[in-house]
Design brief:
Chain A has about 280 residues and is of the alpha/beta class. Chain A contains 10 helices and 10 strands. Chain A has a domain at about 10-90 and about 205-210 and about 220-255: 3-Layer(aba) Sandwich (Rossmann fold), CATH 3.40.50.300. Chain B has one domain (about 15-260). Chain B starts with a helix and ends with a helix. Classes of the chains: A alpha/beta (about 280), B mainly alpha (about 260).
Chain lengths: ~280, ~260
């Protein structure tokens, strides 16, 4: 396994998050989150609905502004740098969104080609070859001319991964990669993430609430609950944890008395997230 | 007191809305006019396909509507003119009201219904499906990618459509002119053209340029500020149409007044 090889997982952090607070209006969603993502590792952020995990990943990529604290990606504070610099940072990040977020008016191939056309001066013929390669990597060879609406949910996610890979990013983010997929297709996506990890030694950050998937792909897991980090550790450390919140999450113990609060929080986050101009 | 604060509140809100429209329109215009000097060429292909949608595909319905408007205008004015035995003034009346007022306005309203609404729906859906976020994370500015091509398409096509609408209106009027007012077709056209001065046409075109910018800004802003869920897309679409119509009429008033007073000297 890569994680045993000290040359691949270096100690220099790719991302470091320091005392991060994010507010939507008056409600604070993240209350001082700090952690590091090492180069070459796969970190899974786990948490229930409304825990703030999606907000966290959106803040990492600069879609939300923190109210205080820092997010350093390769040493650059994404909340403090200028727009042009942020764009440079973003070009090194590939992001696969929950629903794929493929552009419905373009074919799959055009979707994958878009970042290349926008940010490189490559010839059309070169781009075409690269698109074919990226689609092959995710197991979608021959689907360039399909429209996203003609693909199944799992294929759409693969296509989104291909698009995220287009610029050969150093960092790959996944928001709920297996959400809305049946277990077999979801396992396929997990397999894809593992392959990418093996083949490219990319730094991968995955947000999920699927336990099995998290334990399969993760080097380390961050468990986040109500805007705070409850536990952080390797998969084995997590599994043997005796912390009550960790056990509750891993053993899937329901919780009734706080359900309303977390639902409320979730409604708030989603409303704010999409309500921006 | 309550009332005063409410009025104040909605005035501030209205001004803030116009501010964000101006800021969005300004950013798109910056991308269009300054961008090419910084190695960011205008997305011509996207602009052309938008122009097809906004302009060319609107021609059939716009032609039909303005043709009938011209005819209605001729009938209505003849009703009054007839009492003075001045039915032959119908040609001038139709030509001037079309080019100065109804051509630009009817065109704008048709375009709001067709394109302003579809801008809001398209961008709103992209917001809901996280496509806007995807653009941003790919370091592609949504304003640059989505709004700017629409703005070019609109400010080019709306004046063109307006000229077409003016012509169709006059053509509609000529039906009445030939049928009831004793004109020959050629004579009707001649009288119409003689009645117009260049200024009548240019003021209409200046207005239509402003309308185009407004419709794009409102449609795109409503789309970008869409909330979560599919029903929000519907809401933004409605808001885009209502707000565009209101703002277009307001602008029409301001410009008409401006032209009136400036022209009086």
């Amino acid at each position: 396994m890569e994680r045993d090889d000290p040359g691949l997982v270096s100690s220099e952090p790719m991302i470091s998050v320091r005392d991060l607070h994010v507010k939507y209006g008056a409600t604070e969603i993240l209350h001082g989150v700090s952690f590091d993502v090492k180069r070459g590792e796969t970190l899974v952020i786990m948490g229930g609905s409304g825990s703030g995990k999606s907000t966290l990943v959106r803040t990492l990529i600069g879609l939300e502004k923190p109210s205080s604290g820092h997010v350093l990606i390769k040493g650059k504070d994404v909340a403090a740098i200028r727009e042009a610099e942020l764009e440079e940072v973003r070009k090194k990040i590939g992001m696969s969104f929950q629903g794929g977020a493929l552009f419905g008016s373009m074919t799959v191939g055009e979707n994958v080609a878009l970042p290349l056309r926008e940010h490189t001066k490559l010839e059309d013929s070169t781009i075409e070859i690269m698109v074919r390669l990226k689609l092959e990597q995710v197991g979608l060879e021959g689907f360039e001319y399909y429209m996203p609406s003609q693909l199944s949910g799992g294929m759409r996610k693969r296509a989104a991964v291909a698009r995220a890979l287009a610029m050969d990013p150093e960092l790959l983010f996944f928001d709920e990669p297996s959400a809305g997929l049946d277990p077999i297709i979801a396992a396929g996506i997990d397999q894809l993430i593992l392959e990418l990890k093996r083949a490219f030694h990319m730094t991968i950050l995955v947000v999920t609430h699927e336990l099995a998937s998290a334990f399969l792909i993760a080097d380390r897991i961050v468990l986040i609950d109500r805007g705070k980090i409850v536990a952080i550790g390797t998969t084995t450390e997590m599994q043997s944890s005796i912390q009550p919140r960790v056990r509750q999450f891993l053993d899937r113990v329901p919780e009734s008395e706080t359900a309303q609060e977390s639902d409320y929080l979730r409604a708030l986050t989603e409303e704010r997230r999409f309500g921006r101009a | 007191m309550e009332l005063v604060s409410q009025i104040g509140g909605s005035v501030t809100e209205g001004l803030a809305y116009i501010g964000s429209l101006a800021s969005l329109g300004g950013r798109a215009a910056l991308d269009l006019f300054i961008g090419p000097f910084h190695g960011k060429p205008v997305r011509l292909r996207r602009a052309v396909s938008q122009a097809m949608d906004v302009g060319v595909r609107a021609l059939p319905i716009l032609s039909l509507i303005t043709f009938f408007i011209g005819l209605i205008l001729a009938l209505q004015s003849a009703y009054e003119l007839r009492r003075f035995g001045a039915v032959n003034y119908v040609a001038a009346t139709v030509a001037i009201s079309m080019t100065r007022e109804l051509g630009p306005l009817i065109t704008a309203i048709v375009v709001i219904g067709r394109s302003g609404s579809s801008f809001a729906a398209e961008i709103g859906t992209m917001r809901v499906t996280e496509e806007i976020d995807a653009l941003e994370t790919m370091a592609i500015s949504p304003v640059d990618f989505l709004v700017a091509p629409k703005l070019v398409a609109m400010i080019v096509m709306l004046p063109c459509l307006t000229i077409w609408a003016n012509a169709m209106g006059i053509l509609g009027g000529s039906v009445f002119g030939v049928w009831q007012a004793g004109f020959t077709f050629v004579r009707y056209l001649q009288v119409s053209v003689d009645a117009l001065i260049l200024r009548d046409i240019t003021t209409g075109l200046i207005k239509s340029l402003m309308f185009g910018a407004t419709i794009t800004a409102v449609g795109c802003l409503e789309g970008l500020s869409t909330g979560v869920g599919a029903e929000q897309v519907g809401r933004s679409t409605t808001a885009a149409v209502v707000k565009s119509i209101f703002l277009v009429i307001m602008e029409d008033l301001v410009f008409t007044a401006l032209f009136f007073f400036v022209g009086a000297q």
